[in-house]
Amino acid sequence: MSNYKTRYASNPQSVKNYNTEELRSEFLIENVLKEDNIEWIYSHYDRFMVAGVVPIKSTVTLETIDPLKSTYFLERRELGIINIGGTGAVYVDGKKNSLAHKEALYVGQGNKEIVFESEDSKKPAQFYLNSTPAHKAFPVKKIGADDVEVIELGSPETANARTLRKYIVNSVVDVCQLQMGMTTIKTGSSWNTMPAHVHDRRMEVYFYFEVPKDQAVCHFMGQPKETRHIWMADGEAVISPPWSIHSGSGTSSYSFIWGMAGENLDYGDMDVCKINELR
Ligand SMILES: O=C(O)C(=O)C[C@H](O)C(=O)CO
Ligand SMILES: [Zn+2]
């Protein structure tokens, strides 16, 4: 059986009093990508699950974990996978789905055996995984470069020029509630998700990657008038409660994968904060 760690939901009034260590232990997920092993973070925010697997020595099979009380992982769940490493494959009940760098796969409820494989162990695949509860079985779908919806956002003048790629959203693939995409900051810009927003209807998880080893991203969270920050390194993720902004500024350019779940499937459902009113 795969390992897991639980993260409970927090009240914003309590979070105001958290010190640096408490903020990090509640919201930061270090070393997301694990070699030959899946170690889930099971969040009580919308029962959202986060993991990353790098198959090197062997293939890795997705197993259920105790809190799901299911006979197999996807009995009542859906799964989104984005490969940020070398070419790999995901076998869904024996059917091979090849995933090149930055290709994604949606796997719906009811699929029993999921196996992850790298094509070349010297350039292994790096599969980032998000999973949410599901109520309906939608078909498996691969999302390649031509399927992704791309939007250019921000500008160099406001240091927030970035490319946002929507992979697993309801205009691209049928889903119950999971949404996933990738945002890349352009060279010279630093800010993601600025102007910041909240969406009390949905929680979100950001997974930062392509952060140079000696650089960092300062991730901003908290209620708009009570913000906090968490310094983050390459390969780390952060849980964003529904009541929190989720924005970041890097000391270099970087990318991140966003994943969301909750009340609706409208990507644009955001309550935007006025920049000069943030505190
Ligand atoms: O840079 C951005 O802006 C984002 O990536 C925003 C996220 O997609 C998001 O927060 C969606 O709610
Ligand atoms: Zn958001």
UniProtKB/TrEMBL annotation:
Pathway this chain belongs to: Glycan metabolism; pectin degradation; 2-dehydro-3-deoxy-D-gluconate from pectin: step 4/5
Cofactor needs: Zn(2+)
Keyword Phosphoprotein recorded: no
Textual note on the cofactor: Binds 1 zinc ion per subunit.
EC annotation from Swiss-Prot or TrEMBL: 5.3.1.17
Residues annotated for Zn(2+) binding in this entry: 197, 199, 204, 246
InterPro entries: KduI, KduI/IolB_isomerase, KduI_N, RmlC-like_jellyroll, RmlC_Cupin_sf
Keyword Metal-binding recorded: yes
CDD domains: cupin_KduI_C, cupin_KduI_N
Keywords per UniProt: Isomerase, Metal-binding, Zinc
GO-annotated molecular function: 4-deoxy-L-threo-5-hexosulose-uronate ketol-isomerase activity
Coiled-coil ranges (or none): none
Family membership noted in the UniProt record: Belongs to the KduI family.
HAMAP family: KduI
Function: Catalyzes the isomerization of 5-dehydro-4-deoxy-D-glucuronate to 3-deoxy-D-glycero-2,5-hexodiulosonate.
Descriptive protein name: 4-deoxy-L-threo-5-hexosulose-uronate ketol-isomerase
Species the sequence originates in: Polaribacter marinaquae
